[in-house]
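Students often ask why we bother encoding 3D structure as a string. The short answer is that it lets us treat folding as translation between two languages. Here is a chain of 210 residues written in the first language.
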Amino acid sequence: MQSTPCLPTPADPCGLAQLRQQLVPGQDLWVFGYASLIWRPEFQALEQHRTRVHGWHRALKMWSRINRGTPQRPGLVFALLPGGSCQGLVWRIAAADAQPTLTRLWAREMPLQVYIPRWLPCPTPQGPVRALAFTLARQHPSHTGTLSEHTYREIFAHSRGRFGTTLDYARETYAALQAHGIEDRALAALLRLAPASSPTPAACPPILGA
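And here it is in the second language, the structure alphabet:
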């Protein structure tokens, strides 16, 4: 089972119709979440599991100029970037709810057509499933590239958008991951760059397999 992108076509600039066609009638929809979907999924699921995808990793390296920042002072949101692996949650959504759930997910994740939706293989207790995930191409202008510690400090201290601050968003994600037994050491290290007046995660002991 391989990663399969759902790319826009000239006949379908947004790619949603193409994605709809890839849903098998009568088959449940699986969705992989690695950041805000974990703590704000906004859909009803029949089951959920902790899982890990390979070939992709979670990174706070996508510019946000509306939700967590402004054009004048951009903030950051998470993206799924090529390389490594990523622990997150996978949900099973009933076939009867698959199409409306897909519509809501698209409206939430793809208003600016930044992400590339992909079908990623996810292990579950019942075996591997093909789950929808939203990934980011490194060459996209919204990808930040490598950021300095100083830049992260400035963003954590000042960037705020219509849904709140980048710092609150990162902390919500970190807390949700920990609640599900997922340790993200890279995110913990970033959060320790937050302003001294704001509590940050303590260093975490190593976790086998994390």
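Translate back mentally: The longest helix spans residues 95-109. Keep this in mind for the problem set.
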